[in-house]
Amino acid sequence: MQIKVKIEEWVKKTLGEESFQLVHPKDLKNGDFAFFSHSPKMKNDLVQKLEANKIPEVEKVEVAGPFVNVYLSKEFFGDSVSKIIEEGENFGKTDLFEGEKVFIEHTQQNPFKEFHIGHLMPNTIGDSVARIIKANGAEMRIASYHGDVGLHVAKAIWGKMEKPELSWGDAYAHGAEGFEKNKEEIVEINKKVYNRTDEKINSLYDQGRKESLENFEKIYEKLDSHFDFHFFESETGELGKRIVKENIGKIFEESEGAVVFRGENFEPKTHTRVFLNKEDLPTYEAKEIGLAKIKKEKWPDYTKSITVTANEQDSFFKVVEVAIGEVFPELKGKLKHLSHGMLKLPDGKMSSRTGNIITAENLIDQVKERVLDKIKDREFSDKEKNQISEIIAIGAIKYSILRQAAGGDIVFDFEKSISFEGDSGPYLQYTYVRAKSVLGKAQDLTSFESETLRVEDPNSSPRFMRGEKEERPGDFEIQEVEKMLYRFSEIVKRAGKEYAPHYLVTYLVELASGFNSFYAREKIIDEANREASAYKLALTQAVAQILKNGLHLLGIKVPERM
RNA sequence: GCCUCCGUAGCUCAAUGGAUAGAGCAGCGCUCUUCUAAGGCGUUGAUAUGGGUUCGAUUCCUGUCGGAGGCGCCA
C-alpha cells in the first residue's frame, strides 16, 4: 500500500475526520505530509491523539501555524530504499486502473505525406500516456488511424504522375501547389482512387500506400513506439455511412441535401455538424462512427477509448463523442479526447502542403550529429557511439515535447528547443549513467563486494549515525533524495489520472537534481566508512532504478554509458 | 458575431484552493591532482488588469485588455 494512502487512513481512523487534504509540504523542514486544520484550538489535541496512535512509519507530528505536519521515520526511508531495489523495474506501478481495458489511438499519420516533426507530438505524448496508463494497471491496446483515402491522396498521385522522380512527400506538396489550376483532374483521380477503375492509378496508389506505411514502421521502430492495430479511413468510411443512414430520423436528420447531427438537441449540448455531404460521401465525422464500430469489434469489452489529437479538433470531438454515444449507448462516457498543442516553426505553422517542413528523420539526424560531436573523444566504438547518440538525440527530442502540459503549443526553435543541459532529456540520462558508473565501480572494488547495497539497517545511513543534534555536511542532500524516492508511485498515479506525462518529467528532474547535489557533496564510495557507503550506494541504486523506470514511462531509453 | 483554450522572471516552462510562487536557459561570481563538469554552489529576476467568493486565490466566478484555435458539406 502506498504510504500516502496509509497516512490518510491513519489520520481518518485516529481523528474521525472525513474531509482533509493530504499534501507534501513544499519545504522539507515542514515534514513529509501535511494537512490543514480548521480549528486552531483543537490542533494540539489532534497532535496528541495522532502522537499516541502513531504507526511505525511516522516519526513525529507537529503543529505549524494552520498546518499539521507529519514526519516519516528513518525506518520508513530505509525500507523504501530496499523496496525500490527489490522491486526493480516494477517499482512505481499502481492499481489505479486495475481491471480497465483501455484503447488509445494516436499518431493519425496520413500515408503519402511526410512524417514531420509536428507528428512527433501526438506520437510522443500518446505513447507516453499509454505507458503510464499501463503502469497504473490497465490492459492496453494501441491503435493508429490513417487517412489513406481523400483529396490529399489524389494530390500526391497527381504530383507523382506529373513528376515521377519526386518522393511521395514532395509529390504531395507539388499536387497541393497545383491543385487550384488542375482541380478537375485531381478530383477525377480522387474518384478513381475510390472506385478503383484505373489500372495506373491503382498501381500508383498501392505502391505509394505500401511505401508510406513501411516508412512509418521504420520511424516508429526508431521512436520505440508500437501499435497493436492500424485502422484506415478506407474501411471506416463505408461503415460509418451505413450506420449514419440507418439512423436518419432517429439520431441524424437530412438538411440542405446533407445528413447532419443536431448537437443542440442532445445532452450534453453541442452544435450541428455534417456527417454525410451532399454527394452522399461520409465526412470525417461519419468515419469516426465507423471507427468506433471497428474498435468495438476488435476489442468488444473495452472500458475506455482515448483519442489523442491536436487541439484544433476539440469542438469536433465534443460533438462526435455525443453522436457516438447516441448510436452506441454502451459507449457513453467511455470516450476521452486528449488534445495537445501544435508544434510551430518560428515563421508559422508547419504544413506538408506548402513543403514548409522538417521531417522527423531529419531532425533526429541533426540532433544526433551534435551528440556525436560531443562524445567524439570518448573511448567508445563507432557502433556504440552511434547507438548512444541516437538514444540521446531521441531522448532530448521527446523530452522537449513532454516537459510541458500537453495542451500548449510549442514554438520549435532548433537551437533552443533541443537542449542537452539543465532541464533536459540528456540531463536525466546523464544522471542515470553517472549513478550506474558509481555502482559499477563499487562492484569492481572487492572490498565492497559483501557490503554493497545492503540496507537492512537504515541506521547505517550517515544521517542517522550522527548524534541527536549534531549537524553533518551532506545530511540535507541525503534527506532530499530519500524524501523524493518513495513518491514516485504517487506521481505515476497522478500522471495516469490526469493523462499528464509532464508531472513525471518535473518529478524526475527534481530527483535528478537532488541526486546530483548529493553526488557533488558526498563521496559515495568511501572506504573509510564502509557502513555509510553501503547505504549511500543503495540510495544511488534506487535513484538509478527510478530514473530508468520513469524515463521508460516517457518512452525515453537510457544508455549505460555516455 | 458566437464558442473553447490561454496570459507566471528578459526567454522556455512548473505549481493538488494552502506555508517564503518552483525549474531551466540567458547574465554575473565560484567550482574538475576526488566516483563522468551533459555536473555542482551562489546571485539578479515574475502571477496581464479591475472587482468578487474564501480563514487563505496563480488556481474558482466576473468585467477589461492581449494571444491562439474552432464555428454545416476538409481531415
Structure description:
This protein has 562 residues and is of the alpha/beta class. The protein contains 20 helices and 14 strands. The chain has helices at 3-15, 43-52, 74-87, 120-135, 151-162, 168-177, 183-195, 199-223, 233-246, 284-298, 314-327, 360-374, 382-402, 414-417, 425-444, 462-465, 475-485, 488-497, 502-521, 530-553; strands spanning 33-36, 58-64, 67-72, 101-105, 139-146, 229-232, 252-255, 258-262, 272-276, 304-310, 335-340, 343-345, 348-349, 410-411. It has a five-stranded parallel β-sheet with strand order 6-5-4-10-11, sandwiched between helices. A three-stranded antiparallel β-sheet has the order 1-3-2. The model is unreliable at 448-456 and 463-470 (pLDDT under 50). It binds one RNA strand of 75 nucleotides through strand 8, strand 9, helix 11, strand 14 and helix 15.
Q: Compute the separation of the termini in Å.
A: 36 Å
Taking strands numbered 1, 2, ... along the chain, how are they ordered across the largest sheet? 6-5-4-10-11
Give me the count of strands.
14
Please state the overall shape, judged from the principal axes of the Cα atoms: globular
Round the mean pLDDT to the nearest integer and report it. 89
Structural class: alpha/beta
Fraction in helix: 40-55%
- How many helices? 20
Beta-strand level of the residues, as a percent range? 5-15%
The profile of the biggest β sheet is:
5 strands, parallel
Can you tell me the residue ranges where pLDDT is under 50 for at least 5 consecutive residues? Answer: 448-456, 463-470
Please compute the radius of gyration using only Cα atoms. Answer: 28 Å
